[in-house]
Amino acid sequence: MGKISKGILGGFSGKVGTVIGFIVKGVSYMRSIAGSYSQPNTPAQLEQRAKFGLAISFVRPLTELLKIGFRNYTDKMSASNYAMSYTLKNAIRGAYPDFSIDFANVLLSKGTLAGALNPNALSIAAGQVTFSWDDNSDEINAAPTDGALLVAYNPTRNEAVFTNGESTRVDGTQVLNVPTSYTGDSLECYMAFVDAKGNVADSKYIGPVVMA
Questions:
Q1: Range of weakest confidence among 16-30, 57-71, 181-195
Q2: In contact, 38 and 30? CB cutoff 8 Å
Q3: Cα separation of 132 and 116, whole Å?
Q4: Domain that holds residue 198
Q5: Cβ 168 vs Cβ 148: under 8 Å
Q6: What 3 state SS string does 17-74 have?
């Protein structure tokens, strides 16, 4: 209970309703009590939080790659936030609480360059993923010198390996080195192209590859 020391207009000490009064060196002070309430999470809130957590977990190991893939879409948000938004809207499947990433609908890069033609990937040796694609450098918005952007994501370990520009559109093939500890793991593979000016192609999903 609060105590008024000098009449109704004077200072007081203690608690009165939602206000606490106290006196320091003869000066009276008052502050409000922070409100507290308990509101159970609604089903919609629980569902959204689960999706958000899944998307964050997926995007985190891809951060450096996304800076390349979404470099032309970072005027209003970061590349990771752009990827988060896209993943939440297009690449989460299932029902609460059993959500999972729909890898076929994931986008890791976006732009106007011509995409990869007939991309493929396989593993015939430990620690290696061999990517291949057809030369389509004669297409509009394509050039022989466009660099290949190759990605292997390991959902079991939530890790990603990528390389950018070590081969070109006309090369048609490249080996991506990954940890030999990935043997037996299934990697989700993607590829795109990046030109010398930083223009990017939409990434294409190649599919899962079981590591030798």
A1: 16-30
A2: no
A3: 10
A4: 43-210
A5: yes
A6: CCEEEEEECCEEEEEECCCCCCCCCCHHHHHHHHHHHHHHHHHHHHHHHHHHHCHHHC
pLDDT, tens only, 190-205: 999 999 999 999 999 9
Distance (Å, whole) CA 57 – CA 123: 26
Q: How many CB atoms lie within 10 A of CB 206?
A: 25
Structural domain total, the chain: 1
Please tell me which residue, 5 or 178, carries the higher pLDDT value: 178
Is the residue at 34 inside a domain? no
Task: Compute the distance between CA of residue 158 and CA of residue 62 in angstroms, rounded to an integer.
Answer: 10
At 4-15, the pLDDT tens digits run: 455 444 555 565
Residue 176, in any domain of the structure: yes
- Do the Cβ atoms of 180 and 126 come closer than 8 Å? yes
pTM above 0.70, yes or no: yes
Residue 31 lies in a domain: no
Residue 109, amino acid: S
Task: Give the H/E segment covering residue 173.
Answer: strand 173-177
